[in-house]
Amino acid sequence: MTAAAAAAAAVAVAVPVSASADPIPDLAAIGADLAARAFVAPRTRTEVAVHGSFRIRQESLVNLDLDRGLDASGQPLFTVPLGGGQTLDGGDLRLRTDLSIRAPGAGVAVHARLDALDNLAWGGSPEAGTGRAPTPAASTGQTAGAIAVKRAWAETLTPVGVLAAGRMGAHWGLGIAANGGDCDECDGGDAADRLAFASPIAGHVIAVAWDMASSGPFTPRKDERRALDLEPSDDAATWTVALLRTRSDSARVRRAAAGVATVEYGLFASHRAQHNDVPAHYLPVASPRPTGQLPVDSTGGAPANATALVGELDASDLMARGFSATTGGAWFRLTTSRARVEVEAVYARARVDQPSLVPGVLLDQAATSDQFGLALETDVGFGAHRVGLDAGVASGDDAPGFGAFPAPGAAAPQAGDLDGPQADPPGDTTVDNFRFHPDYKVDRILFAEIIGTVTDAIYVRPHVRLTMSDAGPGQLVFTTALVMSWAVQASSTPSGARSLGLELDPSLAYAADSFRVALDYGVLLPGAAFDNPMAGLDAAAAQLVRLRLGYVF
């Protein structure tokens, strides 16, 4: 047995929990708009457009630990109230602003997304700034006045295509692998530091992109205003190429009204690589070095990149990593006057030649990842009403736990745990569970809250939308969905059974152009996968009630 194998239980493993490399950003929008902008009359002055939304949510979650006792590691499946009982409350708000500044002429624009109070807990900073709050405003760990710049990028229209550069949203297809987080209920969203070029060819759009996915550690420059990357060989970069044919929303509506079907599709391939790594600057399990003196900004605080600046790293902290990930994806959509069929499939394969995170302790087995995800959405219209059937599958791994959000360096899960790392070297060095992006929502309780996302699972989701009446400028709409789901690998579930359960998610909503209000309900009847046979307990039903208010501008 090697020294690495003997120490495996104490070694943190750098195994990719998702092998996905970032697809090109929002290509459907680029493709639909590309030709139109070539014929726009030149602007004579700078134009500014502002769009956005304000969102408030409040919800109650009842019995999300399913009353089935503790898992094999002694933890409940979901957070429980400190004082006992079954009900937890939560709420948040967010002001989102999308800003576009278009220069004189027809070819240059700068865009940005700014979120204020992003997912700030409702009541988490009461009477902020007055000093009269019943509890300290900092108790939630959130800043009441925080503004997060999520995106900032520029684009220019050249004679042969569009060149874009900056931090831009990353989205592809339905959003199961890369999701820009643009939906009303989205909480995160992907963005990439990217150079991208898209050009129209024979009725299609072909695009290439280069991303700087990760860099650092950093050290201050002489002026203490900027940072310098200490080791270029540890940068992780991504190359992507994509081909697609797509239409704008308005074009699809016009074609449907004329009885013409619209066929759209796209393909992408992406590759990410990292040669070396410096785990000591980002993981406490890797024996981090003390931090050096950091510069301060004009307000007297640390700059935004302060957490990445280090002061006492040396050559011994540099480790060979040998990471590579290749991802391929396809997307298809058919839209007619009455129906829509849309599907996305993603395959991802990755390898880490040296998965150890501890300098001087090496593993003699590479870690690998082989993942597949598929999502289908359909709906058919009957007058003002619509029905449909959605389905999806995310590949699984035979290790215990779902592997939805494993903590780096955490101990290997035991049979009966809900989550945990899917690799346990030297015996198990594979991570094969595909994880849907958390902003791709299929339910309200099981995948959204208890597991955290769709992974190691198959689901079927029939749904109905009924337009009940016109009410002033808006409509009163009732929707409901029934989600049936099963585990791909029975060994991943707490009980070892495959049936995850049955969830019903009805909503009653009023929607107008600039205002939305909805009352959501969800009830989960858990399957045998969540029973606790060791304790002789069957999993009990869980419920969720949510009120949503949305203001759009």
Describe what is shown at a glance.
The protein is mainly beta and about 550 residues long.
Major sheet attributes: 18 strands, antiparallel, barrel
**CATH fold field value:** Porin
Instruction: Label the structural class.
Output: mainly beta
Radius of gyration from the alpha-carbon trace, in angstroms? 25 Å
Strand content: 35-45%
Contiguous low-pLDDT stretches (5 residues minimum) are 1-21, 128-141, 290-310
Annotation, overall tally of beta strands:
20
Instruction: Give the quaternary arrangement of the chains.
Output: single chain
For the record, what is the CATH homologous superfamily label? Answer: Porin
Count helical runs: 4
**Total number of domains:** 1
- In the CATH hierarchy, the architecture is Beta Barrel
> What is the name of the CATH class?
Mainly Beta
Q: Alpha-carbon distance between the termini?
A: 64 Å
Large-scale geometry: globular
N-to-C SSE string, H for helix and E for strand = HHEEEEEEEEEEHEEEEEHEEEEE
As a percent range, the share of helical residues equals: under 10%
What would the average pLDDT be, to the nearest integer? Answer: 83
How would you explain this protein's 3D organization?
It is a single chain. This protein is mainly β and 553 residues long. It has a single domain, classed as Porin, CATH 2.40.160.10. It has helices spanning 3-6, 27-37, 249-257, 446-451; strands at 47-62, 87-102, 108-121, 147-158, 161-169, 191-201, 204-214, 218-220, 227-229, 236-245, 262-277, 319-335, 339-352, 367-382, 385-394, 457-471, 474-487, 499-511, 515-526, 542-552. It has an 18-stranded antiparallel barrel.
